[in-house]
Write a structure and sequence with these properties.
Length: 297
């Protein structure tokens, strides 16, 4: 396996920091960025304001190793993309396109993190060839970048993700949110009819590494094997964690979201499994690992 040089733009985020650790543990040279100063081990680079040529050491692009750049930085809050359209478009599309062109000119292949919300959510278990129809601004911006990469950078790898969770109860993800609610004896409320593909963040990091090592290109879904109602996943969480709290569904309209949501966002990752032989953990395995890890907190 050839050693790779990988730049991770947005390495302080949930997926970015796990990917940085995964690549380093596998013996690759990885360099990460963060949008603010003082994040240990990361280079400061604000995609909104900074020039990448001043943030990334020039020697990163030297040498004969394969060079890749993972773009994990984005405005990810769906309602924020609606409330602040100019800022969101500048960061998620315009400046990202400028960044891609710069990185391409320095021999980097692009890995881009997208979302299953590019579908309308009317049905789940979507495959890569299904027609897209985003129903919120965040997903429209993601789809615009997908289209740009398919035309301008056909060798890029585009990873669509669904509900990514982790094992740390003090981090920020769905299971940590439920952990906090359950320990406070507060109800866990779910959008009525919502269907997701729970996916472990460590699996996402490993899957991305596999894709880079195998030099995959095109659009792939990276998601856990289960297509499960969010309320059933919450019930499993409470059963395995021995929590006696209310778990209930409510209509989407009662949650106060400003922009649309794809109610059924589950993804079919069979194409990725066939290309890599990679197996994602199922929902029960994810929950058992979460509670095993949570014993230390």
């Amino acid at each position: 396996m050839a050693k790779m040089k990988v730049l991770i733009v947005g390495a302080s985020g949930f997926i970015g920091r796990h990917l940085l650790a995964e690549l380093c543990s596998a013996g690759h040279e990885a360099l990460g960025t963060a949008s603010r100063h003082g994040v240990h081990g990361l280079h400061k680079f604000d995609l909104l304001e900074d020039k990448v040529e001043k943030a990334i050491p020039k020697d990163f692009f030297a040498g004969s190793e394969p060079k890749l750049a993972v773009i994990a930085a984005a405005v990810t809050n769906m309602d924020d993309c609606l409330i602040h359209p100019e800022k969101s478009r500048k960061l998620n599309v315009l400046n990202t396109q400028k960044l891609v062109r710069y990185l391409q000119s320095h021999g980097c292949r692009i890995v881009y993190l997208s979302t299953g919300h590019v579908f309308d959510g009317s049905v789940g278990n979507r495959s890569e060839d299904d027609p897209t129809c985003p129903i919120n601004e965040y997903a429209r911006l993601k789809l615009e970048m997908e289209d740009f990469l398919r035309i301008e950078c056909p060798e890029s790898f585009i990873a669509r993700l669904d509900k990514v969770v982790g094992y740390n109860p003090l981090s920020w993800h769905l299971l940590a949110e439920w952990w906090d609610l359950a320990n406070k004896k507060s109800p866990i409320l779910c959008v009525e009819g919502m269907e997701i593909s729970p996916t472990c963040v460590r699996d996402v990091a490993r899957g991305l590494r596999f894709a880079m090592e195998l030099d995959l290109s095109g659009i792939y879904h990276l998601a856990g094997p289960d297509k499960i109602k969010r309320i059933e996943f919450a019930r499993q969480f409470c059963r395995i964690g021995h929590f006696d709290v209310e778990v209930a569904e409510k209509p989407l309209a009662t949650f106060g979201f400003l922009d649309g949501r794809a109610v059924k966002s589950s993804l079919n990752s069979e194409k990725f499994r066939q290309a890599t032989a990679f197996a994602f953990a199922n929902s029960r395995t994810i929950l058992e690992a979460f509670f095993l890890n949570a014993k230390g907190y």
